[in-house]
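Sequence, please.
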């Protein structure tokens, strides 16, 4: 069965700390170092999606991205 890009993986609690037009810098609760996440890979179910609002909550990304980055 092929993995659909729209499948979501919950990476847990995170906080948006910076952003650009195309990416969001997030601090995952489970990691020591912040990481950049392409906005195109943030799933529609994510609670973290906007650096301007300093959003916090569950970060949900596409399964494809999570597997590519070794986050699963």
């Amino acid at each position: 069965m092929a993995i659909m890009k729209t499948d979501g993986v919950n990476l847990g609690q995170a906080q948006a700390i910076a952003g650009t037009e195309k990416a969001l810098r997030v601090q995952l609760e489970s990691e020591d170092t912040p990481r950049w996440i392409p906005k195109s890979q943030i799933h529609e179910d994510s609670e973290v999606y906007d650096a301007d609002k300093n959003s916090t909550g569950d970060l949900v990304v596409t399964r494809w991205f999570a597997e590519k980055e070794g986050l699963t």
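The chain has one helix and four strands.
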